[in-house]
Amino acid sequence: MSGVEPLAIFGAVDLCLKYGGIIVSKYKAFQLSGTEIEERALAIEAAWMRISQQLDFLKRVWESLDKAYQELQARILSVLERKLADSFDRRKAIKYVYLKDTLFQAVQNLQEWQKEFDTTWFLILLMADSAIDSELKKRTRNEKLSTARHIRRVIKPDSSHHDGNDTILPQKDFESAEVFGIPFSSFKKIKISKGFTFILDPSEVSDSRVASKLATSILARDVRNLATKLREVDPNEFHLLKCHGVVPKNEPGTQRLLAYDFIFDLPQGDFEPRSLRGLLLSKMRYTLGERIRLAQQFATAIHYIHILDFVHKRVRPENVMILPTRNDPSCVGQLFLLGFQEFRAAEGKTLRLGHSDWSHEIYQHPDRQGDNISEDYYMQHDIYSLGVCLLEIGLWGSLINHDGTGNTSLIPSAQSKGLLLQKHFLSLAEQELPLSMGDKYAKVVVNCLSSMKTSNLHADGPSEFEDENGFLIGIKFIEKRQNG
């Protein structure tokens, strides 16, 4: 496989490992018990242990990797090399009075790079190669590689032993559940008799999805597969909740599938979940940093849904849960993507169904609006929908108004349709978004809104976001986010 030369990348990895090892060993020498300095030195050691194991794994599977992935990782590794070299130079000139600030910068550098690297890490799972499986099996103690191994196992085509039947939950266990509505959301919080609390993500099944025994069988299979894969996720990493199981609802007598409810584990905490729509409609204001962090979490969730080989199809603020993590009104909290009402396998048959509610349609690409859908649904359509949501987050305003009585309306600027609406969104992203979020964020939104070939007004060619299995989509999408 052509790409970045193995010797060059091996040299870069070895140099990073050398620098990192020296830096960690020197900072470990400061054994000042109970001090902030010791805590930061330990943070460096913990971060480096994780990074070094992933670098070693990357080195061993390098020649099995896709050329585009090699090129992306080579650029990411060069950033790490610069950060480590900078920390190495600082260490040589260190004096105790500056130690705390130097340690803080070292921790920050490693953690920032780790986030960038982790964004690309699970793309390895899309590559079919025995060398990757072999190396994953050898590394059982690394949490990141353990998560990769679990997900790799369930997404492989030959994972027939995962039929997903163990994800099906009996309806009777939830019939007496106490249900708590969450304003402006598609999901609910439930508490069952045993005292456990979950998030219920309901979905009615349209007639077209169960029009035949084959269609019903395919839908049931996809539901089980998604539930099985979501069981393996790390919520803090993927920004997807861990699936507890699925409750199918059948029509009495005929046993026709009417609905399926995904049941998700609710992370422990004392704070009530909200929807992103509720947050956008509230009077709360957040800093630039908090809004960017929220947008990054949102993009991460979409990225991982695609890695799991599904398209979401209904990306909008009502399907996004925000969970406060501490009693600080200035912090948004954690974002989790829900709303799997119309998902399907990435390679599955698309039904080309529109939506009668225009408050849903405005998040769809022009090719997917109205009653006469002209295009099949692809991963790029999710990226377009993400772009609309990121526009709302950046401008910190809702495209949909609620009058307090359950009625909704679109704000005047969102009442266009099709290509006119897309052009309006692009205009907002180009002219207003830079003023509130900066040029880099604005360019990311523009690229999301321009991701489809029929309206690729700003990307570098009609095929930039196109490929058959979603791998190059992931590469290009990450590059757009990083390069801004």
Description:
There is one protein chain. With 484 residues, the protein is of the alpha+beta class. It has a domain at 6-155. Helices cover 49% and strands 11% of the residues. It contains 16 helices and 12 strands. It has helices at residues 6-28, 36-61, 67-92, 96-121, 130-138, 143-155, 213-231, 235-238, 276-281, 288-307, 358-361, 379-395, 418-431, 433-437, 439-449, 471-483; strands at 178-181, 188-191, 197-204, 243-250, 257-265, 274-275, 310-311, 320-323, 334-337, 344-345, 400-402, 408-410. The chain has a 5-stranded antiparallel beta sheet, with helices on one face. A 3-stranded antiparallel beta sheet has the order 6-8-9. Strand 2 (188-191) and strand 3 (197-204) form a beta hairpin. The radius of gyration is 24 Å and the shape is globular. The model is unreliable at 93-98 and 453-470 (pLDDT under 50). It comes from Penicillium chermesinum. One of its GO terms (molecular function) is ATP binding. Residues 176-472 form the Protein kinase domain. This is Protein kinase domain-containing protein.
**SSE ordering:** HHHHHHEEEHHEEEHHEEEEHHEEHHHH
Mean pLDDT: 77
Largest sheet report:
5 strands, antiparallel
Strand content: 5-15%
- By secondary-structure content and strand pairing, the structural class works out as alpha+beta
Order of neighbouring strands in the sheet with most strands:
1-2-3-5-4
Poorly predicted spans: 93-98, 453-470
- Strand tally: 12
**What is the quaternary state of this protein?**
single chain
Q: Could you estimate the helical fraction of the residues in percent? A: 40-55%
Q: Count of helices?
A: 16
The N- and C-terminal alpha carbons lie at a distance of 29 Å
**Which shape, going by the Cα principal axes?**
globular
Rg: 24 Å
GO molecular function, one term: ATP binding
InterPro entries: Kinase-like_dom_sf, Prot_kinase_dom
Protein name: Protein kinase domain-containing protein
Organism: Penicillium chermesinum
